[in-house]
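Dear colleagues,

I hope this message finds you well. In preparation for our joint manuscript, I am sending the Acyltransferase 3 (Nostoc punctiforme) sequence together with its predicted structure, so that both groups work from identical material. I would be grateful if you could confirm receipt.
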Amino acid sequence: MPKISMYNQINSLTALRGIAALVVVVHHFSYYTLPKTGSNLSAYSNFFRNGYLWVDFFFILSGFIMTHVYIEDFSLKVNPSKYRSYLLSRFARIYPLHIFIISLLIGLEILKLFLLNNSAFTGKFNLTALFANIFLLQAFDLNCPPLFWCDTYWNEPAWSISVEFVIYCIFPFLLFLLLRNNKINDLKVYVFALFSILLLIAFTRGNLDSIIGIPSIARCGLECILGIITYKVYRRGNYRNYFNLNLLAIIAITWIILIMNSYWNYWRSLHDWLILPVFSLLILAVSINNNSLISNFLNSRLMLYLGTISYSIYMVHWFVQELLKTLWIYKFHHAFGKGFTEYEALTSLGVFLMIIILSASLTYRFVEVPMRNYLKSTILAKQ
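The corresponding structure tokens are as follows:
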């Protein structure tokens, strides 16, 4: 069995994953499941309306963290044995919870058949889409021209793990190539990747929220490259000699709030693009534990726990939304949230978040971790 690299976990980044996951949950609930909540929130700020941008934070952070974990394994060459071990480890990380949620959604389709007398396995929950989901191909329906809007995913957030697994397959080779670069070439690669993303946004759907299907491979891959270069800057550590980390964190958070708070109907592609470099800045600013107020907050037990269960939060919330809408129609014979007051809409968001955290805690403990460990102990042991 190949040796698995040991690394020090960067706790503050774990906490940021939890924050990002919760922002995505609020975005989906407020603007998809109960739009009345979204309109109430948007009256004060568009922060959660722009919540989809935190998926791009995940992609950048993924490149950073995977470089942190695998830099020793792939710095000299891409060894076939280590590559297999790495890929199986990545598969064990994402697949068990994904297939568990798909099984729950299959059960929900059957429940709809009995409770609502609806036709099962139709629309986006068709059997062809189910096949694609089982094989992690849900983001790539080749029969969906022009490949920019493919409704083939049962669990909507899971489109991202489909493209991430494609990037996982090429990541060791990207890492091997990019580790050869000096500081000047790193800057050139970062700027090239950044402006390539702007062109991708401008010439596809005009915003990051709609870039799924085949172009999402480029979206995820280019942002992964941003994460790799950001890690190289972190590893060198020169920036710490010239910049105050607390000031960098404050600048990054302020920039994020300003972008997230606004919603540009025109220049939408530029709006979404402008937040990407600041995600790199935020990661750099909080990666070092400097005992500041921000650092202490991110390293608190609650924030670390939310970060630990963030993948479960991200994956389970769409199923809970679908279950809630189904049971509500069965009980009250109208769509969820119809006739809600502003207070009831906002209260429902709070209750929903508590349900999601509880559900994610259970899936993390009883599904995600046990199945990941089982796969690693059985599959990797054979390597």
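For the figure legend, we might mention the following. The chain has one domain: 11-382. The chain has a mean pLDDT of 92.

With kind regards,
E.M.
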